[in-house]
Amino acid sequence: MAYLDKEIVVVDDDRGILESFDAMLGDDYSLVTLDNGFEAIEYVKSHKPRLVFLDIKMPGMNGIEVLKKLRQDKVEVAVVMVTATTQSHYESEAENLGITAYLRKPFEIDEVEDITKRVLH
Fold first, then answer.
1. Which H or E element spans position 18?
2. Which of 23, 50, 53, 105 would disulfide-bridge 84, Cβ 3.0–4.6 Å?
3. Contact predicate 18/12, CB 8 Å
């Protein structure tokens, strides 16, 4: 069953990660992929998706900075931080900013699907 009315945004500077999310969720959800934080802020503020998967380590503006900006601008959206880093200060900072979940790379399809269903259904 497709839920194309429930938009998901994936923000990652790694094309392979974006393609992975598209393969996992693209058939069942309206999925938008972006490769930088600046575009993510503008898109999320104007389109108000239900869920954002947001990479922490990105050039220009990292995921924590994007999340801070969205929270400062009072944008209500579920955010899942995605990272390969093991630096725990990122996780605690993201949790203090009200994330929905923290997803470590490499992740399993089941993890992504479970988080998505929990948030959108």
1. helix 15-25
2. 105
3. yes
Asked whether the predicted pLDDT for residue 106 surpasses 60, the reply is yes
CA dist., res. 97 & res. 79, Å (int): 10
**Domain regions of the chain by residue span:** 3-108
Element (H, E) at 44: helix 37-47
Tokens of 106: 């490499």
Which amino acid belongs to residue 54? L
Q: Round to whole Å and give the CA distance between 10 and 17.
A: 9
| CATH fourth-level superfamily of 3-108 | Response regulator (3.40.50.2300)
Q: What are the tokens at 100?
A: 């929905």
